Every structure is written in C-alpha cells, then in structure tokens.
Amino acid sequence: MARLAVLEPDARLAARLSTALADHHELIECADIAQFWDIVMTRPVDESVIDIYDPAHPVSLSDLQRLRRRVPPLAIVVYADFRNRELDLFELGRLKIDGVILTGATDQPQQTRRAVAEALCATYALGVTDALGGELHTLGVDCLRWAIERAQDSPSVEHLAEASGLTSAGLARELLKRQMPSPARLIFWGRLFRAASLLSDASRRAEEVAFRLNYSSALALTRALRRETGFSLRELRRRGTTACVLAGFLSREVPRRARERQ
C-alpha cells in the first residue's frame, strides 16, 4: 500500500479520488500547498496527486519543476481539467510528470487507480535503473526500464523492439554488440523487478503478484526469484526485495559481460 499526498481542495473531486483510491493506498489529504510541501519534504510519501488549477490553491508549472527537482523519488500525478489548457499537457511531459488524470474524462475509479499505479511503477523503474550506476549501456537501461513499466502486460520481444525503434533481430544484435543481456532476458528481469516492488508490501500475497504478472502460480514466481537471487520470499522481504533482485541482476549479467570485455 503506497502513501499518497493528495492536494485537491475541491470537496467533490477529493471525494472521487477517495472513492477510487482509499481502499488501495494510504491517502494523506492536504488542505493547502503549504501543508503539501511540509508533508512531502518531511514524511515518507511515495506519490503525490495534485490539482494544479484550483482557484484558491493554484500550483504553477515552476512549482511542479521544483517538486520534481527536490523530491526525485516522488511519483507525481496531475489531476485537473485541461479544457482550454491543452498546451499545458506538453509542458507536463517536458517536466517528466509521471501521470495525468483528466477530471470528467479519465477519472473513473478504475482509470484513476491505473494512472496512479503506472506512475508509481514508472518512478520505481527509474529508481532501479539509476541504481545500476552506469553498469549498462543506455540502450540496456531504456529496455530494462520499459520492461519493468510494462511487466503486467506480458510484453514480448517484438513489443520491446518496436518501442526501441528496431526489429527484434536488430535489437538483439545491438544488445549483443554492447555485451548486454538479450531482449528476452531484459523482459524476464523486468518481471522480477516488478515482482520485487509488489512483494515489498508484506501484506501482499505471492499468489496475487503471480497472477498480476502472468506467472502460472505463486510457486513459479518464487522459484524464479530463488533461482536468480538465491533467497526465499521470506529472506527477500527481510533483506529487501528490490536490493536482492538488483544484486542478482548485477551478479548474473554484469560480470559475464565484464569478463568478455577483458
């Protein structure tokens, strides 16, 4: 369960967000921008959901830029009515805002939950690739991040290649040339990293995660994790699920390539 700081002064819209999200996340409702800043700067928060156009508490694009710069791990979702402000959507993309929910259009409960989940996943994927510390070529970083973000959609090598602007064979050649894991391996690791993210919540059962990520069973998922990390699910949670999968990725993929370069 993620912790979400919500800045939505409009009571009607705040109620819609609560209906969609309260059973799935811990919501921290902020009365104004000052309280919002205090919370995101002093408390552990995973994501923010912000209405930037509320007349009483407007949030400027420069405020969003400052938030992105000062709290990089925070996923940011903008919840707003963009009628007659469509050009701002391009600015939000430039600022690397993680998600947008259009009030009255995409703010049905299921779509709201999906937007919030995708934003959290995108931020998590960026954190994983940042933690690699330059161990992978940019192409491999981009492929791994894509694979983590789309792990729940059962992505194929063809989908990954298309997203990279290459054919499947072309992507495989480019990765091999740079002594990186194959497209299939990157997709495989994307699923494991996404599983690690979900399993970090001790209340979430392995069966639920396996179902989300299209494993045949919880046993198939936990066996894959043990094979690649050396740890059981209990040990993974005790040691840190993402840290263990990251260590497994580095030990299984990086040293092999390093030896080949020598």
Commentary on this structure:
The protein has 2 domains: 3-122, Rossmann fold, CATH 3.40.50.2300; 132-261, Homeodomain-like (Arc Repressor Mutant, subunit A). The protein is an alpha/beta fold and 262 residues long. The protein is built from 13 helices and 5 strands. The longest helix has 23 residues, at 109-131. α4 links the parallel β4 and β5. The protein has a 5-stranded parallel beta sheet with strand order 2-1-3-4-5, sandwiched between helices.
- Summed up, the helix count is 13
Determine Rg (CA atoms, Å): 20 Å
Looking at the overall shape, the CATH architecture of the largest domain is Orthogonal Bundle
Distance between the termini: 45 Å
The whole-number mean of residue pLDDT values reads 91
Q: Major sheet: size, sense and barrel closure?
A: 5 strands, parallel
Topology-level CATH name of the largest domain: Arc Repressor Mutant, subunit A
Query: Can you write the helix and strand succession as a string?
Result: EHEHEHEHEHHHHHHHHH
Shape: globular
Side by side, the strands of the main sheet go 2-1-3-4-5
Please name the fourth-level CATH homologous superfamily of the largest domain.
Answer: Homeodomain-like
Number of spatially distinct domains: 2
Specify the structural class: alpha/beta
Instruction: Give the CATH level 1 class of the largest domain.
Output: Mainly Alpha
Percent of residues in beta strands: 5-15%
